[in-house]
Amino acid sequence: MSRKYSLLPYYISKCVRLALLSVLCLSLISITSQGVAAPTGHLAYAVNGFDENLGRFDWNLYATALRGTKDFTAIPLNHKGMYPSWGPDGDLLYFIQRGKGDADIYSINPDNPKNKKLITPISGTYRFLSVSPNGRQLAFNGYTIDQLPQENQIYVLNIDSGEMEVMTQVPHLGWPYSFYGMSWSPNGKRLAFSLSRPGWLEHLYLLDVETKEIEVLTELNKDFYPVWSPDGTRILFLRWNREFDTFCTIDVDTKVIEPLFDVDKATGYWGDWSPEGDYIAYSRWGSVYLYDFNTDETQEVVEVDGSIFIISWLRDGEILPVEPREKLVTTWSSIKRRATQE
Length: 342
Description:
Neuraminidase; about 50% strand; four-stranded antiparallel β-sheet; five-stranded mixed β-sheet; 2 domains; single chain; mainly beta
């Protein structure tokens, strides 16, 4: 007696198993992709508020580890200071600390914040600190204790030798011009900065570190706090408007400006890019927010008791192992002008 068997159930079963396997693989890929896309690294920022450990109301340094989770914590570094800027390896954090009328630049090892080292050979009034990509130089603006406020210029300091070189010769015309931001290009060849000019406008400029030539980047607006993207193609900055400020990016080569989103007046003080350039961190009053370029969405990650100013995002590294004590939710005339597209 011969029997005939149908192969249809076998093929159906096999197809179902393959389909389920495919769904499982896609799910795993999706989960892995989400894990990779999550922002990581370490944020350093200055908080204007009362520090219980320091016992005073001042600008104090904090750090937050981003580990791809939503458990973010503000960790006090127990130093007063402003303008924090990470060294490229994360083993040093540089900042400016004000004394009795003067200021100096210091460095600390985040693993041992008590180990503070003086960097500047002479005190002065310094602002807007940026560490070079190779970690050997510091860029900032200001004037020394032997100078007048009108002599406010950009300096580059060689960390090993302690030599401070004046990089600009901005004509003050009897009163000081103010700088509003400083950022080193990823290739270490240029500095982006903002400077107030007559008419109460702030323009963005590029400074060639070798030739000291200055190039106009934006005009006819109030643009400030520039931060270079990790790939060197764009610069993040804030543009002043009457009712609000707007985070924008500008293409360094084409000068094309792309508005991102608006923030309340005088609250989105500063931003920095994630290591991959797909996020930015910025401050709004006492909170740190992350903006996702892929989704155009923002999320609050840290809240502190005070106002936050200046954010520096460490590119990589493993630091901050200590558990927090308390959780808190050449000359100015050599300017190259190019046509600006907006």
